[in-house]
Amino acid sequence: MRLPDDPHLRLNPLTGRSVLVSQGRTTRPWLGRQEPPPPIRPSYDPQCYLCPGGERASGERNPRYEGTFVFTNDFAAVRPDTVPGSTAPHPLLRATGAPGTCRVLCFSPRHDLDLAQMPVSEIRRVVDLWGEQIDELSRRYRYVQVFENRGEEMGASNPHPHGQLWATAHLPDEAALEDGRQRAWLESSRTPLLLEYADVELRDGSRIVVENPYWLAVVPFWAVWPFETLVMPRGHARRFTDLGDAERGSLADLLRRLLAKYDNLFRRPFPYSMGWHGAPGHVGDDEHWQLHAHIYPPLLRSATNRKFMVGYEMLAEAQRDLSAEEAAERLRAQSDVHFLADAPTADGA
Is 111 a catalytic residue? Predict the structure, then answer.
């Protein structure tokens, strides 16, 4: 059953938050900011501090890496030498030390590539890198957040294909919300929340964008961002280390197809923030968890029109202007072949 066109609320069962869906507002006149298309990049930039051999702000020089490359962030938001104690000069003024570490994960030596344009075999190396890093750091830290900000619109300070990893001794707010909601759902229904939700989406079909034997990508029923997607395993996997060889290869295939559809929608590299949520650490009592990735892209009506979370969204609740079903239909209709598949680079490579 499709919901009526009247404004309505949709509940996010992972967080307990609601989103106001106001269909039809995408037709309103727009005189606001138009995002410029990103420039074409060369395959190698000697001034880039993430390219092979590039000099970083710290003065350290990258190796001439040929695949993926990881280093500790020169401007880390959290550090392992932080004192973990607490202070509270007043009950309303509480602070706690936050030990951790931050790493930069370079996806490719090619300056001009993104996950959307990389071959499946190279995306698979990135998938394995995520798994290796999460496995290593979750033995020392309570939570490991892997994420990628793609494009200047999402705060990326360098266009070279890369992501980040922040490992912390504390459980961050979003993971803590999802932990509690998934735990409560399992206790009441005896089925992990996102496993049941994946079954609902597979039977409905209207919000599916890409699927394969092991993975499912949907515009979630409760999506906030215009073309937001949720990527889930079709089987039970609590964290990245639960994924076997077939699941990882299948994930690389799904990501290539999904991210190519994003770029093909407005025929430009689609900005987004993408991140993985999984069970914290290497502890037990995590049957309620299901590994998943959120992709939050800001573009709304065109390659230059961006959704801003301001006003009502900041002060009241999230709001969106097109239904999740319409967004999924538009993404699903795009080709799996990237529109720049045969285009030359800025340096002719």
Answer: no
